[in-house]
């Protein structure tokens, strides 16, 4: 997974300082980064220069696929990443659209499973894509997007990983995923395995071979209070070989993902890593 380390080195060497308006913290920033993950070769993109908690990342992905809108729902399946944005983001706490403790609003999976049309009805983007791919249909618009500017005020956070485009070439399924903003020390270590698992699952439930993920990042950054740990600890370590991922072969439908699948249905083999690093999180 040395492409992650190369991105970190590029940030340190080429990044420009930008003050983030939302957090008030300076970021070392670059524009445009491209990563690739070979799902067909089962090279699971877990960072090895520190321990990464892949089950929490997969749990978050499952919550998105189910359309969760509450931090408690995410906690119940093993993911705590939404606690702060749901309950400690002052702008969201002051927002009259917030329904109470743990409410996240209309973010991520809500948009993917219940995009609101002008007439008040809802579009299930994920169901449409799964249905088409299961029939071998690629209309060049097999897209799931969480980016709904008309409803930003109804959620606690704009989506960072905002759009997934699926493409069929023969019997092989590919995924192109787009991020507008990426916290490289923290967020990216979740986003990489999530993109890999998303393609692997979609290929599995639609009856295709998995190809590659093309992961495109517009704004990649390291917060000022993360930089010392990145330079003095993580980047002094040598990366190990990528592990492999085993997914329960009994997962065969979108309904399975919605109902009984848990993080226990995903097992990593051969994950050799350095010790964990506790990077600060910017709310």
Describe the structure.
The longest helix has 20 residues. The protein contains 10 helices and 10 strands. By secondary structure, the chain is α+β, with helices and mostly antiparallel strands. 32% of the residues lie in helices and 24% in strands.
Task: Provide a brief overview of the structure.
This protein is an alpha+beta fold and 283 residues long.
Main traits of this protein?
alpha+beta, globular, six-stranded mixed sheet, two-stranded antiparallel ribbon, 283 residues
Q: Number of helical runs? A: 10
Radius of gyration: 18 Å
Strand content: 15-25%
State the total count of DSSP E strands: 10
Low-confidence stretches: none
Gap from first CA to last CA: 28 Å
Binned, the helix content reads: 25-40%
Shape: globular
- Helix/sheet category: alpha+beta
* Cross-sheet strand order for the largest sheet: 1-2-8-7-6-5
Average pLDDT number: 96
Oligomer: single chain
Question: Helices and strands, in N-to-C order?
Answer: HEEHHHHHEEHEEEHEHEHE
Please outline the major beta sheet.
6 strands, mixed
Topology:
Layout: H1 2-14, E1 16-19, E2 26-38, H2 54-65, H3 71-76, H4 83-87, H5 90-93, H6 109-113, E3 115-116, E4 122-123, H7 125-134, E5 143-145, E6 161-169, E7 172-183, H8 187-206, E8 209-223, H9 224-232, E9 244-247, H10 254-259, E10 266-269
Parallel strand pairs: 7-8
Antiparallel strand pairs: 1-2, 2-8, 3-4, 5-6, 6-7, 9-10
Helix pairs in contact: 2-8
